[in-house]
Structure formats: structure tokens, C-alpha cells
Amino acid sequence: MKKDKVKMICIIANGEKPIKRVLDEALAGADMVIAADGGSKICREMGIVPDVIIGDLDSSAADIREIFPESLIIHQVEQNSSDMEKAVAYAISCHPCRINIISALGCRTDHLLQNILIFYFIGRYAPKCEIEVCLYDNWGKIRFLSPGKHILKNRLGRTVSFFSLGSISKLTLRGFRFDITNMEYNEFFGGLSNVYESNECEVEFTGSRLIWYECYKDQGEGEDE
Asked: Are residues 113 and 184 in the same domain?
């Protein structure tokens, strides 16, 4: 697929193996699949042929070109960026509207933290970009909210958490079990295990971005294979 026709990209990393339901949701509508180095192993296990495999390839099989002869393999040996950063830079060069990421969470905590930071500060890689980003794990999904007002619909009963890595001002949550109004949080904010108690909830704030983690509607959905 030509880069100028890519609207949605799915990046597969080398973390926790996704369950099938999560994999299907993350891949739905994808115009391009990118394996970030060792993500190629998960692709192989789950019967996915990635369009692109990128990274230093130290976590990929030695015969990766024979395993995926139809994939574009980009060997980037420089060590100043992680394999995920390489994958993100390539994805951004395609100018997508959305990037879904799977297997970027779980397993090694250092990789997990790095991957969250990459997408929290995605403007570092694409100034002024308005790409929607969603990270999936087997229990829920992470998205990132820019300052302003956001209306979250049709999530009644789900568990949700909000976090910020910087100061937050005038934070208002309406329609949740634990509502707040115009609160100020210096340095960081952590709001763990709130619950949507309305079909239309409101989040409004200024300052840093919010990390929005939403559990799947039924916690048991994360346990199937």
C-alpha cells in the first residue's frame, strides 16, 4: 500500500502476547501492519504477515527474510532510538489518522515505561500531529487526551483511570462515580479505578495531557484465548 493511502496503522511490539479478541479489535480496519523487531515473533505465532518489519533485528529470527518474504524489512542498526521509536517514526511518515499498538505493554517494565513515554510525548516525533493513538493490552486500552473538553459516551459501568505526567489545572470529571470540579494538581495526577456512571461523561482540563486507561466492559473478557 502506498504511504499516502494509509489511514490506520497497527504496530505490533514484543511484549505480552495478545488474546485473539484484542488482536482482532486492534487489527480491524488496519491499512498497514508494522512489526517492531521482535513483534515479528508474535506475528508468526498468530498468523499475521506484517507489511513492514523494522528495528535492529536483534530480537527477530535469523531467517526473518525467509519467514516473511513479502514483508518490507528495514534494518536500522543505530542504538539511539528503540525499536518502537523506529516503528513510530515510520508510521508517522505515512501520515495516518490513527495508530493502534499491541504487545507494547506487559513483560519487561522498562520497555513498558518507554513505550508509554513515546506515545505520551508523541509530539516529539511529529510536531503538531493529530494522530489518534491507542495501546491495547489484555485487560483494557490506553488513549491520550489533549487539554480541552472531552465527552465520553456509551461506557456505563466500565472501570477507568486517568493519569498525567505533568501538572493539570481546572480538572473536571462529570458523570463518574468520583466526580471532581476545577481541581489543580502540581507535578502529576493519578486517578485510579474510577467508574463511568452515566452514558455521557465529561472530562475537561488544561495543562499536561491525560493518560486514559479504560478496562474492557467485562473484566473476564481479558481471560480468553
From this structure: no
d(CA 189, CA 211): 10
Report d(CA 160, CA 196) in Å as an integer: 7
Which residues, in sequence order, are CB contacts of 122 under 8 Å at separation 6+?
88, 129, 131, 133, 144
Both 153 and 183 in one domain: the answer is yes
DSSP for 157-188 reads T-EEEEEESS-EEEEEEESBSS-EEEEEESS-
pTM of the shown model = 0.88
Edge-to-edge strand order for the sheet containing 159-164?
72-75, 52-55, 32-36, 8-12, 98-102, 132-136, 140-145, 210-215, 159-164, 189-195
Q: How far apart are CA 184 and CA 207, in angstroms?
A: 10
pLDDT tens across 39-50, in order?
999 999 999 999
Q: What's the distance, Cα to Cα, between the start and end of the chain in Å?
A: 31
Domain residues for the domain of 99 are 3-138
Residue 27 cell numbers, joined: 487489527
Of 93, 111, 138, the residue at which a domain comes to its end is: 138
Using 50, 70 and 90 to split pLDDT, how confident is the model at 219? very low
205 vs 143: CA distance, rounded Å: 16
187 and 107 both lie in a single domain: no
Cα(104)–Cα(134) distance, integer angstroms: 11
